[in-house]
Amino acid sequence: MANKIPRVAMREQDPAIRATNFEEVCYGYNQEEAMLEATRCLQCKNPRCVAACPVNISIPEFIAALRDGDLQRAADTIARDSSLPSVCGRVCPQETQCEGSCILGIKGEPVAIGKLERFVGDWKLEHGASVQPAAERRAGRVAVVGSGPAGLACASDLAKKGYEVKIFEALHKVGGVLVYGIPEFRLPKQRIVAREIAQVEQLGVEIETDVIVGRTLTVDSLLDEEGYDAVFIGSGAGLPRFMGIPGENLNGVVSANEFLTRANLMHAYDADYDTPIYVGRRVAVVGGGNVAMDSIRTARRLGAESTIVYRRSEKELPARAEEVHHAREEGIEFRMLTNPVEVLGDERGWVRALRCVEMELGEPDESGRRSPVAKPGSEFEIPCDVVIMALGTSPNPLIASTTAGLETSRRGCITADADGATTREGVFAGGDAVTGAATVILAMGAGRTAARAIEAYLESRNGKTPLK
Ligand SMILES: Cc1cc2nc3c(=O)[nH]c(=O)nc-3n(C[C@H](O)[C@H](O)[C@H](O)COP(=O)(O)OP(=O)(O)OC[C@H]3O[C@@H](n4cnc5c(N)ncnc54)[C@H](O)[C@@H]3O)c2cc1C
Ligand code: SF4
Asked: Could you give all domains of the chain from N- to C-terminal order, each with its CATH number?
């Protein structure tokens, strides 16, 4: 299936200029561009894009409203299934989800669904009708632990149904990875994240920051003393992994989490803030996912020569295709099929280089990807002053260790069924806390699924049937 209109390109900051600033890379469509792109959609009777969206947004319906110039209708259509369209339009891996299944992609370019979603979400923030709380209150108080995409999605859906919902967040800012992990140049914090969260609050969701569940309060005390009827745990997977190679305790080796938290949450890139951050002259980032791309592009913007070190080939890079493309344009060097075996230090205990081996791809492993195997005698050094480990994260054990009857997997993930019910009655969980590090939209989908299960749980206690 081809389409005569080419996909409308998105305007972006010039790579040489943006590699020196933290302003957003992509400018977004204007209304004329968005409406033109919307005309490319074939309005399929059985839209493959919807089935491939983890929250099943009615994609052809919102695109049709946009094409007709009815932006409020487009925004309302998306709002039925997503409370964070401006965020998702910017960070979802559309190429493996909605756009990856768009019928136009079989012979040509898929509809730019993510960019259209972003346009509608941004329009809503500027011009949309104000968000209203549910007209009717229902009996049931729900505590949500964590204000990332999973917690926000769960809280929004429950508030829309009329329940009393309060989010408890450990950090001083709301948004989870959206504020502490993903950099400003991909996801503006004040202009986008804070305003989409404000819309969640307009639904009636209360948010309290600086509350560490497991320390300040516990899940048990929320249920037994604070009068909550159910708890949703969306506490993410914020515990960084290291490689376990010699030299990892040298000065200059940091986790991507720490590096990005300093840069984003603590504004280290901003001259008005005192937060220290060190990049030296050359930075090497180990890993190939979104976290690795965000770290290396941040280091580049802070003035360092920057290299990605990844043990598989380009084809296996797990990062969004757009981030890899943008990183290359910004002058990031990619050392593929390369695995660090040791971090080398100088006489003062600071990093001076990464010792690596060349890899080749062998047989597929349990993930279906070909596993990398070291080439004998291929050791070499990459000179660098800072090494950032972006190897994945796992859930913090604090909540599991302080909640009676809450089981976890061997990897430390909270055990939950397909509806988000955990092994503790009245306690539900979803997002990275259950799956391990995944994506924004999967976390939102899990939050929504758990909201339905919590509703059923509360209504069965109230002796009623859940609302449609
Ligand atoms: C740098 C980076 C870049 C990424 N880029 C992308 C991308 O481009 N696209 C994409 O789809 N995904 C991306 N991801 C993954 C995505 O952000 C996560 O999968 C998603 O945020 C998970 O949502 P969550 O709500 O489960 O957890 P989180 O976003 O981690 O939120 C959990 C929240 O719970 C809070 N919390 C934790 N413990 C407690 C406690 N004990 N008490 C109270 N609060 C607590 C945390 O402070 C946090 O605010 C990226 C991740 C990172 C780190
Ligand atoms: S699959 Fe593509 S063309 Fe069909 S409805 Fe979805 S976006 Fe439109």
From this structure: 15-127 (1.10.1060.10), 141-238+394-462 (3.50.50.60), 242-391 (3.50.50.60)
